[in-house]
């Protein structure tokens, strides 16, 4: 079989011959939209692949770009898909696939971090990563610094738009010193870098960082296992405090309601007050309140 393909040649490729280089997760809603669009108007842009020969001598292809479209074709029961065939080395194919994932308008935060980390592990410089991904050089440098420090929680907050990158760098620079971290947070607030929802989110991230470690999710460090018991106790205590506060709030609201009901009963016994209400056409009240003022259903 002839495997010599000219760059940019579009061919129909069997789906079972395509191997995904950098598989990634995609929300079900987004995927359903891709499938619906392809079913309605067809494939607007072919996927990109590069040809290879497997151990048995058969031709296969490495997917560079278009995993969503490929899976959509599989979901629709298709056997072949239009593909732009480019002849590039393994390293270039890997980088092109990573860059495509990172440069997407709506990538997942963890995908960006994973992509940059893989490029770092392969020996790429910050400048070359910025050039290949189209990201700002300073931004990539700060991301790489946080990656080297293992600050995954801060990084996810940055990529989600929760807190600015410079604030994350300042917090990371404070290390595990709680006073220094709080001072960094206060400085960010006073400078206007953190406001409103961002400040609230930053406090939550810092709290999780202190309790669960810098790594996020299942990648948490050993520190997580060392403090798991303490974490459970603290979580329980926090929940008890929250429930106690809710009970107090409910009791206070009930006292105010009883006061209002008592006052209304006294006023409604005053004929002059009742006549005034009638003159102003205020002869009804909310059912919830009326049932408490007149528990037997009778009223003046």
From TrEMBL:
One of its GO terms (molecular function) is DNA binding. Signal peptide: none annotated. Transmembrane segments: none annotated. It comes from the Bacteria. One of its GO terms (cellular component) is chromosome. SMART domains: ParB (SM00470). Pfam families: ParB_N, RepB. CDD domains: ParB_N_like (cd16411). Residues 11-102 form the ParB-like N-terminal domain. One of its GO terms (biological process) is chromosome segregation. Belongs to the ParB family. This is ParB/RepB/Spo0J family partition protein. It comes from Paraburkholderia acidiphila. The lineage of its organism: Bacteria, Pseudomonadati, Pseudomonadota, Betaproteobacteria, Burkholderiales.
